Structure of Histidine--tRNA ligase:
Amino acid sequence: MSTGKLQAARGTQDVLPAQAPERLALERVARRVLEGAGYERIETPTFEATDLFSRGVGTSTDIVQKEMFTFRDRGDRSLTLRPEGTAPVMRAYLEHGMHKLPQPVKLWYWESFFRDERMQAGRYKQFWQVGAEAIGASGPSVDAELITLLHAILSEVGVGDLKVRLGSLGTAQTRAAYRERLVAYLRTHEERLSAEVRERIDLNPLRAFDADDAGTREVMAGAPLLLDELDAGDAEHFAAVRARLDAADVPYVIDPTLVRGLDYYTRTVFEVESGALAAAQAAVGGGGRYDGLAEQLGGPATPGIGWAAGIERILIAAEPSLHPVAICDLYVAGEGLTAFALAAQARKAGLAVQQELAGRSAKGALKQAARLRATCVALVDETAGTIELRDTESGEQTVATDAAQVIARALKGRHPG
Ligand code: AMP
């Protein structure tokens, strides 16, 4: 048995108190933006039957082939720690008969996910995502609304140098026909392609668009594009999504080579990158429409669209501008009975209160209150029975004779949250 110092498992990390204010600020922005638009919070279990992801995400994807944490329970059932949120949310929609609710059903989540990937900055084996899904409506406004909301959240928290890449994959049939055409095109130019691309022509021809070598790039400049082969209905949907993003002033670039690593996407796909992140991990979030997913999971045909964004990456990209929120409305400087009763009463009134617990002098207590970014400080004089209240933002000082006065003033200065 090893007796060394224990550490968190490789690729996982603790969220320490020092990071809590930024995470809380981000969660509050996400909640306000999404709930303001009618998205309701959903929480699904940390593990699911493995079948959900094999069927929902697709057996040919990297996630299912290489990245899932799969284990057997005592009843020999195969279970998997969720690697993504869309399949579980769709499973919950179908399982709980949410098709009976007014459509679309709009949901959001803030949860951790698990993928056995090689750890790098911004890439972990357990990571957190905020995500939103709208299930049960197929019109272009839903696509544009979701992209607009993701853009709004990232802009508001200060993720710098945002770039929205937008594409459309059409239907599964369009994609299959296009794939054949692309493979044929690559075969006719095989001698100019890199060895790596040549070997993967049949396996993953779309990857050729990402190649760096000059020969392949020249060939790809003349390659057929999926966007040019969309059928009339899909092309019209794509144009309508773009028109709505234009109307909402959401900047985007059309990327005809955008391929997302999951099998379930149809029509609109998008990815948001930030120039504030290293190129290899530049994706902050992404998503798309998945009109075939419900049927893949054994349900009736149901359209849906959603996105997920990585919390760790948002926080890395937003770092300097994401202001921590005040989480202390009132600091009670004093440890006597009056001070203790004031703290208890103020907490009952709904204030976030911290009390002096380490015997600091009035000066030391004021310093501690400043460190906590307390909005107000109450200096309690137990003998005189008075309480001096300082507003740390305006510097205003007032004297109160009872707890009720202090609480009324602190409630007025309180930060919304
Ligand atoms: P995906 O569903 O793979 O497009 O992931 C959506 C977002 O989640 C990405 O844009 C990243 O911000 C984040 N993400 C995905 N995988 C990881 C990971 N292994 N570690 C940290 N963040 C991740």
Notes: Residues 84, 115, 117, 122-124, 127, 129, 283-286, 308-310, 312-313 surround adenosine monophosphate (CB under 6 Å). The chain has a mean pLDDT of 92. The longest strand covers residues 105-114.
